[in-house]
Amino acid sequence: MDKKKPKKVFVKGAIPPEKIATSIANHQSKTNIGAHSIFLGQIRADEIDGKKVSAIDYSAYEEMAENVFHEIREAAFSKFDMTCCHIYHSLGQVKIGEICLFVFTSSAHRKIAIEACNYLVEEIKAKVPIFGKEIFEDETHQWKVNK
């Protein structure tokens, strides 16, 4: 089996809605695809100890994280009969209401696209070394804990 080159996952700042729309539009010519599944992670205005989150500042050891993303992506391709799989994650500050994670899977059938997308999101949350600093409205911060 050929060793695939890892795809670039990280985006500086929020993932713009235009990037999502363009990704969808770029797949219209792939007529063997019958279904897409999309997960969009958005920054919530959580309230913690009486303080409201205004943004999350994401950081990572990029090369290490990119390798983990690659391993997860390849595992998904061997587990599910997908046609396409795209993953983008923010680095740097992302404000409440903005998108920080975009996972887009395509397959001939909906069940596979949906299951693959869910698998990818759960694996990313569990395994990728990305750190989020929750920035509060008063400009104090704390490190995010994934639940």
UniProtKB/TrEMBL annotation:
<keyword id="KW-0501">Molybdenum cofactor biosynthesis</keyword>
<dbReference type="GO" id="GO:0006777">
    <property type="term" value="P:Mo-molybdopterin cofactor biosynthetic process"/>
</dbReference>
<dbReference type="InterPro" id="IPR003448">
    <property type="entry name" value="Mopterin_biosynth_MoaE"/>
</dbReference>
<dbReference type="InterPro" id="IPR036563">
    <property type="entry name" value="MoaE_sf"/>
</dbReference>
<comment type="similarity">
    <text>Belongs to the MoaE family.</text>
</comment>
<dbReference type="GO" id="GO:0030366">
    <property type="term" value="F:molybdopterin synthase activity"/>
</dbReference>
<dbReference type="Pfam" id="PF02391">
    <property type="entry name" value="MoaE"/>
</dbReference>
<comment type="subunit">
    <text>Heterotetramer of 2 MoaD subunits and 2 MoaE subunits. Also stable as homodimer. The enzyme changes between these two forms during catalysis.</text>
</comment>
<protein>
    <recommendedName>
        <fullName>Molybdopterin synthase catalytic subunit</fullName>
        <ecNumber>2.8.1.12</ecNumber>
    </recommendedName>
</protein>
<comment type="pathway">
    <text>Cofactor biosynthesis; molybdopterin biosynthesis.</text>
</comment>
